[in-house]
Every structure is written in C-alpha cells, then in structure tokens.
Specification:
The protein starts with a helix and ends in a 6-residue tail after the last helix. By secondary structure, the chain is mainly alpha-helical. The strands form 2 sheets. Strands 1-3-2 form a 3-stranded antiparallel sheet. Strands 4-6-5 form a 3-stranded antiparallel sheet. The relative contact order is 0.11. The model is unreliable at 24-30 (pLDDT under 50). Helix 3 (60-70) crosses helix 4 (82-88) and helix 10 (207-227) packs across helix 12. Among the domains are: 129-204; 208-259. A hairpin with a 6-residue loop joins strand 5 (190-192) and strand 6 (199-202). The protein contains 12 helices and 6 strands. Pfam families: Stk19 (PF10494). Keywords: Kinase, Transferase. This is Ser/Thr protein kinase.
C-alpha cells in the first residue's frame, strides 16, 4: 500500500507541474521576475528625491563642536574650545585632531587663538559664522577696505587657514596698505602677536565678554568643589545648581574644566 501511495503522489505532482500549479525551480535564472510594486510612503513627499550619495555625515569631532555650541545659547559668540571636544571624545585625541584638521582643510571650520587663554587653547568657529562677523565689522566700523576680498582670501585660500598671518602675506594677497591693516586691527579682526613682529592673530568680536563669562563660571564651579569635604560632586547634582556670575551653561563649563585638565571626571 505504501508503494502504491507513493506512486499516486508522484503522478499527482507531475500533473500539477504540467498544469502550472507548481512553480518549477529557476535553475538557470532565466525566468522573468514579477514587477516590483512601489508602495506609497508619505515621507517621500516630505523629503522629495534625496540622493544618498549627496548626504554628508559630520565627523564625531565636528558633531561634538556643534553640540557644545548648541548647549551654550547665551554665549555672545558661537564658539567652543578644542579641549572641550576631548572631554566628549576622550578615547583617541589623534583621531579627533585628524577629523578637525579635515574640517579646517575643507574650509567649513576655523581655529582661533583667543586672548586670555593659554597658547594651546584654541577655539573653533564655523566659517559661515566668521564670514558673517567680518560683514558685521565692515558695517560697524565703516572699513575703507574691500571686505569681500579679505573675507574670500582668508576663508578660501588654504595658506591663510591658520591661527595667524604675517603682515606681508596679507598685504600682498589683498593689496592692502599699512593703513588697511591698522583698520583691521582697530575693528578687532586682527590682533598683534605678542612675541612675533609683524605677525597677527585672526580675531573674533566680543571675545572679551566670552572669556569673562567663562572665567567667572570656571571659578564658581571650582569654589563649589573646594567647599565640599570630598572635593567632588555628582554631575547630576552640579547641573542642578545655578550660577549667578556666568551666563554660560553648567554643562558647557564642565566640558571646559574636564577637557582642559582643571578637574577630573
């Protein structure tokens, strides 16, 4: 009975194949595939035709810089320190430095020396914000120079994408006179180097108020730690405190203190 049953099943399977009820395996890949049906997604209308190849993902270092600027909205200028990024990304400073250098080369970000900080404590600013600052300075101080030429030179020429510039290089690239350079200094766009003759740091406006608020916030947090018997405090508890001498956010100041080595986490 078992052999008869097997023979009946085999005959039935052969019949089904002949009638097209059972799909034969596509051994040679020659069978025509059914058309793909695209389901309507309402998000397609919102974002339009987005090409993934054109999407640019920020590096971890750049994302950290943007985060630091975002958490300190009461700052007079949108900047952060490089060492604050080390506080967020503490495991590999070499990778962080490489990512930041790539941001400088691409022209998206700039690095500045700031008066009142140590020589190796550089600040970061988006190039777009720096360009807006140059335009504002030209209007505020009625500079008798070609502001666009200065802006294009220092933001698009890789040779000028440093923290300082020589007077001679600037005069040659922008066709500036001694008076033009003096106007840039008077407007706060350049600061004379304190040890090198005829060398200037690129500068940013309102850095005095920034450093004042930063210093007061640093001092107040350090005093809070000093008054405690254990000389430490939980981050959650510290963030709940209110600073009356600084407008900066406590989280921004914490990353400054930790990244600069003034306190340990």
């Amino acid at each position: 009975m078992s052999e008869r049953k097997k023979r009946i099943e085999a005959e039935q399977k052969l019949y089904n194949i002949q009638q097209g009820k059972v799909q034969k395996p596509d051994v040679y890949g020659s069978r025509r595939k059914p058309p793909m049906v695209k389901h309507h997604d309402p998000d397609d209308e919102l974002f339009g035709d987005v090409n993934d190849d054109n999407l640019v993902m920020n590096s971890d270092a750049v994302s950290a810089a943007e985060y630091l600027i975002k958490i300190n909205p009461k700052s007079s200028i949108p900047i952060c320190f490089v060492h604050q990024i080390y506080s967020i990304l503490p495991n590999n400073h070499t990778v962080t430095d490489r990512e930041l250098q790539q941001a400088f080369i691409s022209g998206d970000w700039r690095r500045f020396h700031i008066i009142g900080a140590l020589d190796d404590e550089h600040i970061l600013m988006k190039t777009s914000d720096y360009c807006n600052m140059i335009d504002h300075a030209k209007q505020q101080y009625s500079l008798e120079i070609d502001g666009n030429k200065f802006k294009n030179t220092v933001t698009h020429d890789e040779k000028f994408n440093q923290v300082s510039v020589t007077k001679q290089a600037l005069k040659e690239a922008c066709s500036f006179t001694e008076q033009n350079v003096s106007q840039l200094v008077a407007s706060g766009l350049l600061i004379p180097h304190h040890t090198q003759m005829d060398v200037y740091w690129y500068s940013i406006h309102n850095q005095g108020s920034f450093m004042s608020s930063l210093s007061k916030g640093r001092l107040q947090i350090l005093r809070i730690l000093k008054r405690r018997n254990t000389k430490d405090i939980m981050e959650k508890l510290l963030k709940q405190k209110r600073l009356n001498k600084s407008t900066f956010s406590i989280e921004f100041l914490m990353h400054d203190l930790i990244g600069s080595g003034r306190v340990e986490k």
